[in-house]
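SUBJECT: A protein chain and its fold
Encoding: whole-number codes for local backbone shapes
Chain under study, with its fold:
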Amino acid sequence: VQVVESGGDLVQSGGSLRLSCAASGFTLDYNVYGWFRQAPGKEREGVSIIDSRDGTTYYKDSVKGRFTLSADNAKNTVYLQMNSLKPEDTGVYYCAVGYYIAGTWANGMDYWGKGTLVTVSS
């Protein structure tokens, strides 16, 4: 099983980025994709999560209205569109896949990517 993130970059405050997460090698159906981030010196936190079967999506409060998570089921790929980026959005963004959306999102994730770095300069 492979989970590969891409799209991280250095961007100015107010700018936009689109992260991609491609999953492959599954023998069973993984339908839930989550994005998490970890800023330097801070704990990992959930950013957004989607159940690709019905499109149910949740966002961390601080990114609501700025980030949009979407899924392309045919490609087993999800996209995190990030607009109006702020310096506090800086961190390594990880994608993970799982079967269900747990109360604590990370608990429902089975496979994780290696991350992609997003840096937002002020």
